[in-house]
């Protein structure tokens, strides 16, 4: 599965998501977006985390990509 949860404001969502969608080694992915750095860090499954800061240009690039 691929799950996208957009604009999260509360760090507790990460525990709920982990409970509902356990890691079953099926190469599933969960993408969570937030504007709050502490929420982003709490949602990471790796110690150092994979937190990316997106800009408005990123969204424009996706919309204008011909592929």
TrEMBL record:
Q: Which InterPro entries does the record cross-reference, listed alphabetically?
A: NB-ARC (IPR002182), P-loop_NTPase (IPR027417)
Under Pfam families, the record lists: NB-ARC
| Domain NB-ARC: start-end pairs | 1-43
MF GO annotations? ADP binding
The UniProt entry, under SUPFAM superfamilies, shows: P-loop containing nucleoside triphosphate hydrolases (SSF52540)
Q: What is this protein called?
A: NB-ARC domain-containing protein
